[in-house]
Amino acid sequence: MDYFLKSARLGFRCWRPEDLTLAIELWGDPAVSALIGGCFTPEMVRARLAKEIEQMKEYGMQYWPLFLLESDRHVGCAGLRPYRMEAGVYELGVHLRPAFWKRGLAKEAGSAVIEYAFSTLNAKALFAGHHPANQASRQLLLRLGFIPAQDERYPPTGLMHPSYLLPKA
């Protein structure tokens, strides 16, 4: 596969319309979507995929699909979305399929996205948040160097989510 970004074990490429099956396997999995708004129906996944493709066209960023370099097996997605564009702040996100949890891949993907955001996109800072019950995401963000900021309402869950900032060094 042709990856625009690589880490030690992962390759990043852009979502394509023909990736609907991969998107359904990711966001249609209740274990993945439980803490980001609940199980996505196939129609919701189709809309999410279209939104990711549109964000890439409009902003040059998305939650890019991730693949293992050794096998090209789909792992999940990681990337950026607009947050406070006028201030140069992007939102970082990582969603992995359960078979790839607890392997250090989220940290590896997050680190690659952070480097890309600051060096290629010239971001001034990154924002991230997580469901209050998701302690694994909390630990990931702290290991990536994010600093706790404030709680923000996340519309898909209706809850106040702990939020973090990572300023450019």
Largest sheet: 8 strands, mixed
Beta-strand fraction estimate: 25-35%
Q: Which CATH architecture is right? A: 3-Layer(aba) Sandwich
Q: What is the rounded distance between the termini?
A: 32 Å
Helix content range of the residues, please? 25-40%
Helix and strand element order:
EEHHHEEEHEHEE
- Please state the structural category: alpha+beta
List the total number of helices: 5
Give me the Rg, rounded. Answer: 15 Å
CATH topology: Aminopeptidase
CATH H-level superfamily: Gcn5-related N-acetyltransferase (GNAT)
Folded structure, characterized:
By secondary structure, this protein is an alpha+beta fold. The chain has one domain (5-127): Gcn5-related N-acetyltransferase (GNAT) (Aminopeptidase). Helix content is 32%, strand content 31%. The chain is built from 5 helices and 8 strands. It has helices at residues 20-27, 30-33, 42-59, 105-119, 135-143; strands spanning 5-6, 10-12, 63-68, 74-84, 89-96, 125-129, 147-154, 159-167. It has an 8-stranded mixed beta sheet, sandwiched between helices. The longest helix is centred in the first third of the chain and has 18 residues, at 42-59.
